[in-house]
Structure formats: structure tokens, C-alpha cells
Design a protein that fits this description.
The protein has ten helices and 15 strands. By secondary structure, it is of the alpha/beta class. The chain is globular.
Length: 331
């Protein structure tokens, strides 16, 4: 198979390219060129803001795989390449769904309205809806739409899924205590980037079409913490704080600075990390044990440097103060 990967030089794109190369496919990456493509792939440097960018590609492709979140890029690609690419796969997101409070929804759940303006990260879900619409309009029954939830594994530069394993391995406090949300109803639903990449390549090779929630079965957030503690060898205290306490202390959910990664308020997000994966499983999606992903992510975090400034989570100094405050509140 001759595969075009639009992107392919960052985290998930790189995993897709490596999986395709392992299977013996010819891979061409089209990206800005500020990072190298994985060894064995051909890099075509181009800026997709330029409508003529796709003229740098030569020949036909059996399939293309795009990871874009920019609607103009999605529309431009399928318009320019429809006659030269037989099958099209888009990595979308479960953030396209309109309802986050209904557990267990499948791919037929209502979507957010497609964004019709210039790309805005605050409109990430709506922008991905517009990307999906562009691909489906051009390719119809030859289109594959993958909607992953949160992606984990070595290389997660968002610093979300590595935060807890690293914090449990290197607590901020002298006594090993770690601040965690008291959220018995909250769930997490993670897929390893390597498993997602493997399925995307194999599904593309088979010509699989349709829309799929490409993630894993959900588990309780508390069970995730237990797994991460076991992998990290953590035996310190868990200082639990409830949702109101978190709000009162201006800690944000999910990701970003001064956040508790992976945690989302309940019940308004009761369905966000509980999407049905039945269709993707029937289409061959296989995922490794979550413990393996946690272990490998922790190893990558330790190699990247546990003391680095993070994009998500609490800083160690801030957590020490917050734990002291939480303990004083309980007295």
C-alpha cells in the first residue's frame, strides 16, 4: 500500500507512520518540515495554508490518513486529492459529541454544530465536526472517521496522562502524600497511541469505512489511580478533596495549568469518558492492558525529566500548599 499521512512528524502521526512502515507499506508524509519524519518515510515539506501545497505530491495513493483539526485543511486536502487517493481516514475526536452527560452513547449520538469560521482551539470539537463533514462529503462510503477519546502512551506532550504516574512516583510532599479528587462517579477512557495507530493502519489497509469511537472500555477514576499507584510503587496518603473544594481553590479540570488532569466535574460530564466502543471492537480494535500504557508513559516521563515545567497539572510547590490547606480543613 502507498500511504499518504498528512502530518506524521508529531506524536500520533509518527506512531501511524511507524506502524505502516513495520507492515512494509510505502509512506509519504506531508508536513511543515520543522520536524523530521520517522526513518523510512518520505517527507514532503509543505504548508497546508497554501492552496497549492498538494501539488508537491506526486502519483497516486491507495489511502490517505489525516490528523488535522483545521477545517480549511481538511476541505483543501480532499478537494485537491480526491482523484488521486482511493480511501480516506480522518482522526477526529469524541469531543465532537453534543452531550457529555449521557453515559454509554455510541456513534449515532448528536454532534455539535460544525464550525464555519477560521480555526479556534476553543472550538476544537466543532472544528473536528467540520473536518468530518468535509471528508464524508468527498469520500462517502470510502471514508473512515476515528473518534478517539484521550490518548495516552509515551510521548504525551500534553502532560495529561503522564501527570498521575509521575506524581505517584515522585510526590511533591516529604511524606509522600498526593492530592486527588474525591470523585467516585468519574471515569476515564484512555487509548494508547500505539494501539490507535496500529488499528488505523490495519483498518485503512482493509478499506474499513464508517465512524468509530476508537478508545478503550472505561474504568472508574479511582481504579485508574490504583493502577497508577501500583505501577509507580506509591504507598503515601491520598489527600482527597471534593468537587466544591476544587472549585473554591480555583483548580481547573481535565488539563492545563493548575489542573487535576483526567478529572471532570460530575454529573455534567458523566458520559464524556464512557463512550461505547462496540463498533470499533467489531472492526478489529485491540488495546493493550492499561497498566502497560501507564508503565511505558511513566518511563518516558522519567526520561523526559521529572522536574520539567508541565503543561498540565499542579506544580509541586502549589500542591504542597494545597495539601496543607486540605488537611487543615479536615481538622
Amino acid at each position: 500500500m502507498r500511504l499518504l499521512v498528512l502530518g506524521g512528524t508529531a506524536w500520533l502521526g509518527g506512531e501511524i507512520v511507524r506502524a505502516a512502515l513495520e507492515d512494509g507499506h510505502e509512506v509519504v508524509c506531508m508536513a511543515r518540515g520543522d520536524r523530521p519524519a520517522p526513518d523510512g518515510a518520505t517527507l514532503v515539506a509543505a504548508n497546508r495554508d497554501d492552496p497549492q501545497a498538494y501539488s508537491a505530491l506526486d502519483g497516486r495513493f491507495d489511502a490517505a490518513l489525516d490528523v488535522t483539526m483545521v477545517p480549511a485543511h481538511a476541505r483543501g486536502a480532499v478537494t485537491a486529492l480526491r482523484d488521486r487517493v482511493d480511501h480516506w481516514a480522518l482522526v477526529s475526536t469524541c469531543s465532537v459529541y453534543a452531550q457529555d452527560d449521557v453515559p454509554g452513547q455510541d456513534e449515532s449520538a448528536p454532534l455539535q454544530p460544525a464550525w464555519d469560521g477560521a480555526f479556534e482551539i476553543e472550538k476544537y470539537g466543532e472544528c473536528k465536526v467540520a473536518c468530518e463533514q468535509a471528508v464524508l462529503a468527498a469520500y462517502g462510503d470510502s471514508a473512515l472517521i476515528a473518534r478517539p477519546g484521550l490518548i495516552t502512551g509515551p510521548g504525551d506532550h500534553s502532560d495529561r496522562t503522564g501527570y498521575w504516574p509521575l506524581r505517584f512516583a515522585h510526590p511533591a510532599t516529604d511524606d509522600g502524600a498526593v492530592l486527588v479528587p474525591d470523585a467516585p462517579e468519574a471515569s476515564v477512557q484512555l487509548i494508547d497511541a500505539r494501539d490507535l495507530a496500529r488499528w488505523l493502519v490495519e483498518a485503512t489497509q482493509r478499506g474499513t469505512a464508517g465512524v468509530f469511537n476508537t478508545t478503550t472500555e472505561h474504568i472508574a477514576l479511582g481504579d485508574y489511580f490504583a493502577l497508577a499507584r501500583d505501577v509507580a510503587g506509591h504507598d503515601g496518603d491520598l489527600v482527597t478533596v471534593d468537587q466544591q473544594w476544587i472549585t473554591d481553590h480555583e483548580i481547573v479540570p481535565w488539563a492545563g495549568e493548575r489542573s487535576l488532569p483526567l478529572w471532570l466535574p460530575q454529573p455534567e460530564y458523566a458520559g464524556f469518558a464512557t463512550r461505547s466502543t462496540a463498533a470499533a471492537r467489531a472492526a478489529g480494535l485491540q488495546t493493550r492492558p492499561l497498566e502497560e500504557s501507564i508503565r511505558d508513559t511513566l518511563a518516558w516521563e522519567l526520561q523526559a525529566g521529572p522536574g520539567r515545567v508541565r503543561k498540565s497539572g499542579l506544580s509541586p510547590a502549589d500542591e504542597v500548599v494545597l495539601i496543607s490547606d486540605a488537611r487543615a480543613t479536615d481538622l
